[in-house]
Design goal:
Order of helices and strands: EHEHHEHEHEHEHEHEHEEEEEEEEEEHHE
Number of helices: 11
Strand order of the largest sheet: 8-7-6-5-4-3-2-9
Mean pLDDT: 95
CATH superfamily of the largest domain: Alanine racemase
Structural class: alpha/beta
Low-confidence stretches: none
Helix content: 25-40%
Strand content: 15-25%
Number of domains: 2
Distance between the termini: 22 Å
C-alpha cells in the first residue's frame, strides 16, 4: 500500500559519476540518517560491493549498526553524545571524529581500556560554526593528541563548507589549509584531508585533497540549489509510491477532508490515497504539491492528514489499486523530490530523509 522503491543501480551509478569527478581522491559514501532515508545497511552493502573507500555516519550507534550487519569498510563517525560508547566503537574498528579536548580525553580513555589504537579524524571549524574545534583551541587540541603518542593514530584532518557563497567557501578552504599546516608543523602524521561534500566536490576540484565525502549526490538529488542533479548525470534512487484505496462519487459542493480546504465544483470522483504526514509527507504539501497516476498529475487539493489525502480526479477512469507516484525520477514524468520540496518550502534532503512511517522499502538492482 505504501512503498519506497530504492534503485541500488542508481546509487552505484551515482557513486561512479562522483568518483570520476574526484580527481583520483578517495570517496567516502555518507550513509548517515538511514542513508538519507534509503536504508543504511542495504546502501552500505551496495557501496561496499562497489568499492567505496569509506563510509560516513553521524554517530557511533549508526556505525555499530553497520558493523553488526557485517560491513567491513572503514567507517567514520563524527557527531558524539557525551554518553557514546567509545569502547564499543574502538572495539568495532570505527574511526572517530574529534572536535574538542573533552572528546579526545574520553576516546583516549577508551583506547586505554581496550588496548586498541584509536583512529582519529581531527575536525577544525573553518567558519561553518557547527561541529569542530575552534581556531583558538586547535593548537592545544593538537598538542594533546601528540602527547598521547602511539595510543592514537591520526587518520584524517577534516572540516565542512557552508556553501553560503563562493567567497565564503574559498575563505574556509584557506583556513583549512592553515589548520593543516599547523598539524604538519607539530609533526603529527596523517593520511587524509577531507573537506568537500557533494556540492563542494563539484564546485572546487582543487579542494578534493585525499578524500571527498559524497552524500546527497549518491542518492541522485540536487547537490546545488541552482543546478539539477541531471546536469551531472545523477539518477534519483528513491521512488515513493502508494495505491488508490478508495474511489467514490460525490455531488457538487461536497467538502473534502479537514477544514474543507477543497469543495467540489461539480459532481466528481474522489480518490483516497493512504499516505499522510505519519509517512513523512509534509502537511504543507496541501494545496501545493502534485502526485502522478498513470501519465497525469493531480494536485493535492485537500488537507494532508496523518494517514491519507484525497484527490479530486473528476471523471478520469481511476480505479482502486491504481499506482500513485508521490515522487520519483522526473525523467519518467513523475514529480521529483525537488518538486515536492519546493512545494513544501523545504529541501530535497528533508523530503527523502523523513520518508518512513508505514512505508516499506523495496530494493532492486546491484545484483539483487
Amino acid at each position: 500500500m505504501r512503498t519506497l522503491r530504492i534503485n541500488l543501480d542508481a546509487i552505484v551509478h551515482n557513486l561512479d559519476v562522483m568518483r570520476a569527478r574526484a580527481s583520483q581522491a578517495k570517496v567516502m559514501g555518507v550513509v548517515k540518517a538511514n542513508a538519507y532515508g534509503h536504508g543504511a545497511i542495504e546502501v552500505a552493502r551496495t557501496l561496499e560491493r562497489a568499492g567505496v573507500d569509506y563510509l560516513g555516519v553521524a554517530d557511533v550507534n549508526e556505525a555499530l549498526a553497520l558493523r553488526n550487519a557485517g560491513i567491513a569498510t572503514p567507517i567514520l563517525a563524527w557527531l558524539h553524545d557525551p554518553a557514546d560508547d567509545f569502547v564499543a566503537a574502538l572495539s568495532a574498528s570505527v574511526d572517530l571524529g574529534v572536535a574538542n579536548r573533552q572528546q579526545l580525553a574520553r576516546i583516549s580513555a577508551a583506547a586505554a581500556i581496550t588496548g586498541v589504537v584509536a583512529k582519529l579524524h581531527l575536525k577544525i571549524d573553518t567558519g561553518l560554526g557547527r561541529n569542530g574545534s575552534t581556531e583558538a583551541e586547535w593548537t592545544q587540541l593538537l598538542e594533546e593528541v601528540k602527547a598521547l603518542g602511539e595510543a592514537v593514530s591520526v587518520v584524517g584532518i577534516f572540516s565542512h563548507l557552508s556553501t553560503t557563497s563562493r567567497t565564503d567557501d574559498l575563505a574556509q578552504i584557506e583556513k583549512f589549509d592553515s589548520a593543516v599546516a599547523e598539524v604538519k608543523k607539530l609533526g603529527i602524521n596523517f593520511e587524509l584531508r577531507h573537506l568537500t561534500a557533494s556540492d563542494g566536490s563539484l564546485a572546487y576540484p582543487d579542494a578534493h585533497y585525499e578524500m571527498v565525502r559524497i552524500g546527497v549526490a549518491l542518492y541522485g538529488l540536487d547537490p546545488f540549489s541552482t543546478n539539477r542533479a541531471s546536469d551531472y548525470g545523477l539518477i534519483p534512487a528513491m521512488t515513493a509510491v502508494s495505491r488508490v484505496a478508495q474511489v467514490k462519487t460525490v455531488p457538487a459542493g461536497h467538502g473534502v477532508s479537514y477544514n474543507f480546504l477543497h469543495r467540489t465544483k461539480a459532481e466528481t470522483n474522489l480518490a483516497l490515497i493512504p499516505v499522510g504526514y505519519a509517512e513523512g509527507l509534509p502537511r504543507s504539501a496541501t494545496g501545493k504539491a502534485e502526485v502522478q497516476i498513470g501519465t497525469k498529475r493531480y494536485p493535492i487539493s485537500s488537507q494532508v492528514a496523518m494517514d491519507q489525502f484525497v484527490l479530486d480526479i473528476g471523471q478520469d477512469p481511476i480505479q482502486i489499486g491504481d499506482e500513485v507516484v508521490i515522487f520519483g525520477d522526473s525523467a519518467t514524468g513523475a514529480p521529483s523530490a525537488d518538486d515536492l520540496a519546493t512545494a513544501c518550502g523545504t529541501i530535497n534532503y528533508e523530503i527523502v530523509t523523513r520518508m518512513g512511517g508505514r512505508f516499506k522499502r523495496e530494493y532492486f538492482g546491484a545484483g539483487l
